[in-house]
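Recall that a protein's primary structure is simply its ordered list of amino acids. Everything else, from secondary elements to tertiary packing, is in principle encoded there. The following example makes that idea concrete.
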Amino acid sequence: MNYGTFIELEAKIPAFGNIRTVTCYINTTTQMTHNYPNPWDFHNTYKTLVSPDNYHKVVYYDLNEIAMGAPIGGQCFLETSDKKKVKINDWCGGPPAWEKDGQLLAIPIWTRKFLKGTVQQIGVLDTRNMELKIFKKTFRVLDIRSFEKTTIYGYDSPIHKTERLNFDIEKERVETLIKLTA
């Protein structure tokens, strides 16, 4: 079931010389806008940052807005229960999602691409091999909700022109494979 949100904006229109109020209707779902965490609001206290096996935890540092009012991103590390710390990437978004067995982590990674601007790519961290696969496909704003076996579910651009995400890591092209070291 779709719900919507009304937003009133005031704009000064130079041709008329005064301020006009415009009411916009944004078609959203409660699943997209009322979830916590989301790409605009997540932090290190969120319990799903800990792997299901309780051995790993994702920790963010220096989170900042990508642009004014935009989602946040920053350095991201994987910490183990034996206090090892490994950098995943310098510019990760969130929230990430663990695969049910706790060995794979799906995480949005911010990047800049020629002619596309600032976009996100899906990174999948294999904690057994300590390898980060960054997939070639780009997205506007990822809102990853779950990771089941080989498929990542969520939304691309959860507020504007939303598209459902159904990303099978066995069928998508890998752009980069990075071996992570402590």
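Residues 1-9, 22-33 have pLDDT under 50 and may be disordered. DSSP finds one helix and 13 strands in the chain.
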